[in-house]
């Protein structure tokens, strides 16, 4: 458990998949087993549950509560557990946030409202209302490829004035905006797009919220440590070794490929829920080749 205010959620977190049974129901025992594996064997400081990779939009409120409670029971005493609570409805997001607090979550991930394309004034009001609703620290999730609307620098500067808005998961990859936000605020940045982990860390991000962390957690920790120590040559070496992993996992939706890899490794995952579809045999063959090129062989999780 981290207590460093500069890294309020630790350094290496994975956006955890939600394991399902073959009939599509939630596999709570599998969620606990996977969470323990990630924390105890994959060097994670924390987990983000019920995010994009956790297929939260296809789960009912009751299912989300059960998943969060199961993961907290499994690893909440030794890892930061951040609950994804964001929706495109402010009132529903507040309800989710309060429920996550009651269940014992350590923090909240709040995504930019999607589909309804609010203006910046709407984003400011939305995020502030959610942060006001609980006593938990908030990580904003800035992901315009899914939400369309980015959180602009001036909005981030104003949001940073809120005592509970402490971090940003950045999947925007606007490095100019990132640099200005870091220069003008104390927000802790976490890279939310694995392919740009190194440049974002080099600019001042404090950690990652990763999808490939399901498979290469120790190497991500090595990457973060190398940047922190100023050893950019080592950081480039680690990052280059991970490029085939990044590419392989994101040839299609990351949850599809990661669940396929976890199934091959004998770890809980199960199928994806519609409208997603499971990896085809051809995609699985390509994934095996990509991961092998990155030092991950399906059959055994290990780091080279």
TrEMBL record:
UniProt-annotated catalytic positions? 141, 169
Task: Name the domain of life this protein comes from.
Answer: Bacteria
Question: Which CDD domains would you find in this protein's record?
Answer: DHDPS (cd00950)
Q: Which reaction does it catalyse?
A: L-aspartate 4-semialdehyde + pyruvate = (2S,4S)-4-hydroxy-2,3,4,5-tetrahydrodipicolinate + H2O + H(+)
| Subcellular location, principal | cytoplasm
- According to UniProt, residues marked as the site described as Part of a proton relay during catalysis are 52, 115
InterPro entries referenced in this protein's UniProt entry, alphabetically: Aldolase_TIM (IPR013785), DapA (IPR005263), DapA-like (IPR002220), Schiff_base-form_aldolases_AS (IPR020625), Schiff_base-form_aldolases_CS (IPR020624)
Name the UniProt key words of this record, in alphabetical order: Amino-acid biosynthesis, Cytoplasm, Diaminopimelate biosynthesis, Lyase, Lysine biosynthesis, Schiff base
Enzyme Commission number, as recorded: 4.3.3.7
Gene Ontology MF: a single term: 4-hydroxy-tetrahydrodipicolinate synthase activity
The record lists pyruvate as bound by: 53, 209
Its pathway?
A: Amino-acid biosynthesis; L-lysine biosynthesis via DAP pathway; (S)-tetrahydrodipicolinate from L-aspartate: step 3/4
Localization per record: Cytoplasm
Q: Which GO terms describe its biological process?
A: diaminopimelate biosynthetic process; lysine biosynthetic process via diaminopimelate
Asked whether the UniProt record includes Ribosomal protein among its keywords, one would answer: no
Family listed: Belongs to the DapA family.
Quaternary structure and interacting proteins, as annotated: Homotetramer; dimer of dimers.
Function, in words: Catalyzes the condensation of (S)-aspartate-beta-semialdehyde [(S)-ASA] and pyruvate to 4-hydroxy-tetrahydrodipicolinate (HTPA).
What's the name of the protein? 4-hydroxy-tetrahydrodipicolinate synthase
Q: Which organism is it from?
A: Geodermatophilus telluris
């Amino acid at each position: 458990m981290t207590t460093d205010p500069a890294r309020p959620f630790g350094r290496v977190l994975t956006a955890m998949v939600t394991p399902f049974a073959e009939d599509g129901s939630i596999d709570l025992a599998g969620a606990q087993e996977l969470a323990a594996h990630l924390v105890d064997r994959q060097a994670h400081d924390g987990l983000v549950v019920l995010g994009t990779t956790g297929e939260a939009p296809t789960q009912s409120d009751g299912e989300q509560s059960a998943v969060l409670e199961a993961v907290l029971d499994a690893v909440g005493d030794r890892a930061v557990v951040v609950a994804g609570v964001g929706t495109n409805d402010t009132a529903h997001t507040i309800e989710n946030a309060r429920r996550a607090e009651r269940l014992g979550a350590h923090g909240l991930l709040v995504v930019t409202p999607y589909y309804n394309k609010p203006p910046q004034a709407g984003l400011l009001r939305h995020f502030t209302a959610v942060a006001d609703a609980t006593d938990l620290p908030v990580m904003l999730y800035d992901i315009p490829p899914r939400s369309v609307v980015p959180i602009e620098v001036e909005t981030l500067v104003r949001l940073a004035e809120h005592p509970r808005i402490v971090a940003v998961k950045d999947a925007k990859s606007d490095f100019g905006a990132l640099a200005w936000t870091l220069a003008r605020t104390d927000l802790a940045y976490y890279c939310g797009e694995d392919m740009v982990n190194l440049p974002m860390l080099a600019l001042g991000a404090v950690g990652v919220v990763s999808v490939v962390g399901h498979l290469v957690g120790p190497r991500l920790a090595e990457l973060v440590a190398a940047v922190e120590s100023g050893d950019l040559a080592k950081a480039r070496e680690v990052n280059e070794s991970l490029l085939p992993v990044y590419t392989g996992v994101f040839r299609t939706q990351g949850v599809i490929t990661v669940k396929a890899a976890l199934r091959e490794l004998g770890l809980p995952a199960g199928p994806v829920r519609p409208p997603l579809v499971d990896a085809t045999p051809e995609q699985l063959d390509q994934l095996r080749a990509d991961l092998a090129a990155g030092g991950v062989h399906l059959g055994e999780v290990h780091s080279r």
